[in-house]
Design brief:
The complex is a heterodimer. Chain A contains 17 helices and four strands. By secondary structure, chain A is mainly alpha-helical. Chain A folds into two domains: about 120 residues, no CATH class; about 220 residues, MetI-like fold. The longest helix of chain A has about 40 residues. The mean pLDDT of chain A is about 90. By secondary structure, chain B is α/β, with parallel strands linked by helices. In chain B, the strands form three sheets. In chain B, strands 1, 2, 3, 4, 8, 9, 10, 11 and 13 form a nine-stranded mixed sheet that branches. In chain B, strand 1, helix 2 and strand 2 form a beta-alpha-beta unit. Classes of the chains: A mainly alpha, B alpha/beta.
């Protein structure tokens, strides 16, 4: 049965108390829903960061062992020629005179990082020691001992099931009782580049690589992007071609980043002959990737500048270029900077296009200029996450922390700049 | 200001073109399986010689070969690593570009099937592996979709738990080797498939290499550490990965014995453990004496201190070649003997 139509249609406001309550109620619900959504997002963030910090904080400390280094006055006199490998080994052996066989000696040396002879040399060099004798030097323990100290290796298991033998445990306990094992701040992590030995690996190489790469990205993509946006928004005639360009720019923003990597490989490396693995080539590819983001946000920033500003400037006799550069662009700058932040943050976290540019690589030297071989922070995280050594697990999380910190700093600078340019009317 | 900017960009463009003409650093590309070993040698080489530390890229065996065979000149890599032998198609590509190659076999890598120590150790045969993981298996002489749900459905000696295996995706070299050694090896044990192999190798390979898609085999990505973590969390699951990860996690994981042999260092080195492959690197002749240090790098790699039984590569999980092979391959490598196929 069809409901009969009401005779007269009363379209006046429904002012009943019942409807009032309902309206307020739905507003309240909406507010709770919003709070709930924010709560979920926040708790996810907290879970993520706390799990990273929980896993990674131990990487900022490194186990050190004190050894008494015996050095002759001849060796001290000519430090650069002294055989520190030999000096180190004799010093270690004299601590444990009962170790005789070749196999046992090898196990004994494995308590220490394999780079300690360099550390000891540096100690004598830095402290300008002039006379021979016995000096107590704190050197890095090997990654396995470090893991034992930090509790990641269970010493109660059978000998065959752990990476540290019973003998090594005995030596370790002996050193520990003498108070010669200590955790110290892991300076190497912040001063070295990658290494295959976890205790000698650091993040500085990747950090510098990221800074150099992003520098190139910024100086290429920001001026070009802003210039393109100004032209398209203010000068270009609206016709078939400008529509086509607009559609293409919007589509480019959604192209998977690996495609830009392939383009970079074909054009920048093979055609222009740019060096592989260099920040200049990687940065150029990332600039291509961030361009659409910057163009789109710069255009909407320009659109948001009230027309009255333009009209006033033109009315006072300014040329169109003067209107643009003196009035509209400074007002649109905060919005353009927001676009640049988003683009840069994307570029900072990108690995896929860099694979094609040869930046997914093992590089032990901190890059010094734009054409040196370099890697970037997310690539370093990826490589460490894939390494079999257990000590790289905590370093992976620590590297993520460094990446996040870098991101926050970068954004902070951009926000300060934006504050500086912001004008209210 | 904009003029300065253009000048700056022009300067960059000029600076890299001049720099790319000279290179004093060895460039290595290739397999992610050989990556940990090549990087260890590279680091050591940089520390102990006056040469620059080589740059080692992890591009995968196939990707490395592509870059390596692209041409001669400073823009192309000097050495490529591979977790399998060079294919004849790749060799042809290299020859077309006029590239002379030296092949160096560096050692072995075992592929293990492991589970958490919380469960019992598995003892299986290659035939079981094929039956557990293949898409189509012969039952009563007929090829049918894989009907096995529990390990005990295949053989009474196996545990009565669900078949759940985490393994690498088809893009990985580990997967290639696993398919070739374990799955093909198992498929051959069926008389009907063995006949097919003789008649039509392609059809046989297709059957042997297709893995079931009903959730019993889970592609877990290239990251072996991830598989290790998942196995710890799920004691009923098994994982397929390289021996060095088992070696590093021997306190948490155990390797299954295949055809009666446990995946131990000795069994893989001696060739008793059946699922193991050889690792290689390839050197470009034209770059020797042009890029400084290539010869020295090859001799550092083939030094007993590195790949010998007590060498540092062994600590990183490489399984060494037999003594006699090391001698002959090492001297051939240093003398840059050309590869002929």
């Amino acid at each position: 049965m069809i409901n009969p139509m009401p005779k007269s249609i009363d379209r006046g406001p429904n002012l009943s108390a019942e409807r009032f309550v309902k309206r307020y109620r739905s507003e309240k619900y909406f507010k709770y829903l919003g709070l709930f959504a924010i709560g979920i997002a926040l708790s996810m963030l907290i879970v993520l960061t706390s799990s990273i910090i929980f896993k990674g904080h131990s990487a900022f400390w490194q186990t050190h062992i004190a050894i008494d280094v015996q050095i002759t006055s001849e060796d001290v006199a000519s430090i650069s020629n002294a055989n520190f490998r030999g000096i180190t080994r004799t010093s270690i052996r004299s601590e444990f005179p009962e170790v005789k066989s070749r196999r046992d000696k090898k196990q004994l040396y494995k308590l220490f990082s394999n780079g300690i002879s360099f550390e000891i040399k540096e100690y004598f060099f830095k402290n300008k020691i002039q006379s021979g004798g016995i000096y107590r030097v704190w050197v890095k323990a090997s990654a396995d001992i470090d893991m034992l100290r930090k509790g990641f290796i269970n010493r109660d298991l059978e000998e065959t099931n752990r990476r540290i033998s019973d003998k090594q445990l005995k030596w370790y306990d002996q050193l520990d009782q003498e108070g010669r094992i200590e955790k110290k701040f892991n300076v190497t992590f912040f001063t070295a580049a990658d290494s295959r030995e976890p205790e000698q690996a650091g993040i500085l190489g990747a950090l510098v690589g990221s800074i150099l790469t992003l520098f190139i990205t910024l100086i290429l993509s920001f001026p070009i992007g802003v210039g393109a946006a100004i032209y398209l928004e203010e000068f270009a005639k609206k016709n078939y071609w400008s529509d086509l360009i607009e559609v293409n720019i919007n589509n480019l923003a959604a192209v998977p980043s690996i495609v830009f990597g392939l383009l970079g490989l074909a054009v920048l490396l093979n055609w222009f002959g740019m060096p592989r693995s260099a920040p200049i080539a990687g940065g150029a590819v990332l600039a291509l990737m961030t361009l659409p983001t910057i163009i789109i946000s710069s255009r909407s920033a320009l659109k948001a500048v009230p027309p009255s500003i333009r009209e006033a400037a033109l009315g006072m006799g300014a040329s169109r270029l003067q209107t643009m550069l003196h009035h509209v662009v400074p007002l649109a700058m905060p919005g353009m900077l927001t676009g640049a932040i988003i683009g840069m943050a994307q570029a900072l976290g990108e690995t896929a296009p860099l694979l094609m540019m040869g930046m997914v690589a093992f590089i032990v030297d901190v890059p010094g200029n734009l054409t040196d071989a370099a890697t970037v922070l997310p690539v370093q995280i990826f490589l460490w996450a894939d390494a079999p050594e257990r000590a790289f697990v905590e370093r992976t999380s620590a590297a993520i922390m460094v990446l996040l910190l870098f991101l926050v700093t970068m954004n902070l600078v951009a926000i300060l700049l934006r504050k500086h340019f912001e004008r209210r009317w | 200001m904009s003029k300065n900017l253009f000048g700056l960009i022009a300067l960059f463009l000029l600076s890299f073109t001049s720099i790319s003409e000279a290179r004093d650093q060895i460039r290595i590309v290739g397999s992610s399986t050989v990556f940990p070993f090549a990087t260890a040698v590279a680091e050591n080489f940089g520390k102990t010689t006056s040469f620059k530390t080589p740059v080692v890229e992890s591009t995968g065996s196939g990707g490395g070969m592509k870059l390596f065979c692209a041409g001669v000149g400073v823009g192309h890599p000097d050495i490529t690593n591979a977790s399998r032998r060079i294919k004849s198609s790749e060799y042809k590509k290299c020859m077309d570009k006029g590239i002379g190659i030296t092949e160096v076999k560096i050692g072995f890598d075992g592929i293990v099937i492991a589970n958490s120590k919380k469960s019992k150790r598995l003892a299986i045969t290659k035939k079981h592996i094929f039956q557990a993981l293949a898409h189509k298996v012969p039952v009563n002489g007929k090829l049918v979709d894989n009907p096995y749900k529990l390990w005990s459905d295949i053989d009474k000696s196996l545990p009565s738990t669900k078949i759940e295996v985490l393994g690498p995706p088809p893009t990985s070299g580990t997967r290639d080797a696993f398919s070739e050694l374990a799955l093909e090896g198992g498929a051959k044990k069926f008389p009907s498939l063995a006949v097919l192999r003789k008649k039509n190798k392609k059809a046989f390979k297709k059957i042997a290499h297709s893995v079931r898609e009903d959730g019993a085999f889970i592609e877990a990505g290239e990251n072996d550490n991830l598989i290790v973590q998942k196995l710890e969390a799920n004691p009923n699951a098994f994982g397929i990965f390289g021996f060095s990860f088992l070696d590093q996690n021997s306190d948490k994981l155990q390797g299954a014995s295949v055809d009666g042999n446990l995946p131990t260092f000795e069994a893989i080195a001696g060739g008793q453990y059946g699922v193991s492959r050889s690792l290689f690197f390839y050197v470009k002749h034209q770059h020797v004496n042009v890029i400084p240090g290539i010869k020295e790098f090859v001799s550092a790699f083939t030094n007993e201190k590195a790949w010998g039984e007590d060498g540092y590569l062994i600590d990183k999980g490489l399984i060494p070649l037999p003594d006699t092979d090391r001698n002959s391959i090492g001297s051939a490598a240093v003398n840059m003997v050309k590869l002929k196929m």
